[in-house]
Specification:
The protein is globular, with a radius of gyration of 20 Å. It has a domain of 183 residues: Rossmann fold, CATH 3.40.50.150. The longest helix is centred in the first third of the chain and has 23 residues. β2, α5 and β3 form a beta-alpha-beta unit. α2 runs parallel beside α5. It has 308 residues and is of the alpha/beta class. One of its GO terms (biological process) is methylation. This is tRNA N(3)-methylcytidine methyltransferase. GO terms for molecular function: RNA methyltransferase activity; S-adenosylmethionine-dependent methyltransferase activity.
């Protein structure tokens, strides 16, 4: 299936074989045992570290790291462009807006939009508000951790036509994804939609992380080379001697993580909180880096969901 207004995607079977993440062997036991000791402590540690990481990221890279995302107008034009009532103002909520690489191209293409945008990084929100095209009349931008902060504090309930989740869910702990969707549902109109684009199982980045033994749990990986201190390793060993620390060089800081989605997982996740699948597909693209002489097989999930 293809998203509304999206061009057909050509996928060569010989180039894109069916893929599922390799089974986790004994070498991953230390990481999995550590992360499953306490869901509460894991979530607290992850949230704190993740916000620190993204704040530092945006302070370093500003709005120069990610390219502007113009593909939303190609994939989902019919959702943003009301051809019947051209004067109708559609309301969009971008959750995890970052430096504004999604919302500013959208407003430029569809000037009748009103956009709410939030991110849990204060530095990201500062970048959005300092953007040359920021307009307080057409945009409501605010700091919010959508996994725990009520969106209705800044957005009126049942007033949003479209929620966009563009590479947002993959950056949070899997245990928090349903909470984010429940939060979005409260501000979405009864006939509203959620548009999702995110990393898919089999993406070359996932394969690379898996080969580096950076798996936390199935399809969930830590990125970068951040490690905990020797004192923390000693603390874990003394408090939880059953956790084997010698099978990995270090334990991960849960600050920079990525989840890779299958169509089945995404469908089940959204249906569990009361959404229906309108459209879902896996978009595949082969990218060649000529300077490094490597070819990467990139995969993304592209999906549309409506309220049931």
């Amino acid at each position: 299936m293809h998203a509304a207004g999206a061009p057909p995607v050509t996928v060569l079977p010989s180039t894109w074989p069916a893929y599922s993440a390799p089974r986790v062997g004994t070498r991953y036991l230390s990481i999995r045992a550590w992360t499953s000791l306490s869901n509460d402590s894991e979530n607290h540690h992850y949230s704190r570290r993740s916000q620190q990481y993204w704040d530092k990221f945006y302070k370093l890279h500003k709005n120069k790291f990610f390219k502007d995302r113009h593909y939303l107008e190609k994939d989902w034009r019919s959702y943003f462009d009301d051809e019947i009532e051209s004067s109708h103002v559609k309301v969009v909520l971008e959750v995890g807006c970052g430096a504004g690489n999604t919302i500013f191209p959208l407003i430029a293409t569809f000037p009748n939009l009103y956009v709410h945008a939030c991110d849990f990084s204060p530095q990201a929100i500062t970048l959005v508000k300092s953007h040359a095209n920021f307009s307080a009349e057409k945009m409501n931008v605010f700091v919010c951790d959508a996994a725990k902060d009520d969106l209705c504090v800044n957005v009126m309930p049942s007033t949003v036509d479209i929620v966009t989740l563009i590479f947002t869910l993959s950056a949070v702990s899997p245990g928090k994804m349903a909470s984010i969707l429940e939060n979005c549902k409260k501000v979405l109109k009864p006939n509203g939609h959620i548009l999702l684009r995110d990393y898919a199982v089999g993406d070359s980045a996932q394969v690379k992380l898996h080969d580096r033994n950076q798996m936390i749990r199935e399809n969930f990986y830590f990125r970068g080379d951040g490690t905990v201190s020797i004192l923390w390793r000693l603390f874990v060993y003394l408090c939880f001697p059953a956790v084997i620390l010698t099978s990995a060089k270090s334990l991960p800081l849960l600050a920079q993580c990525s989840f890779y989605f299958s169509e089945a997982f995404v469908s089940t996740l959204f249906q569990s909180v009361g959404f229906v699948v309108v459209d879902i597909n896996t978009y595949c693209k082969e990218i060649t880096n000529h300077s490094r002489n490597i070819t990467m097989q990139r995969r993304w999930i592209r999906a549309t969901f409506g309220r049931s």
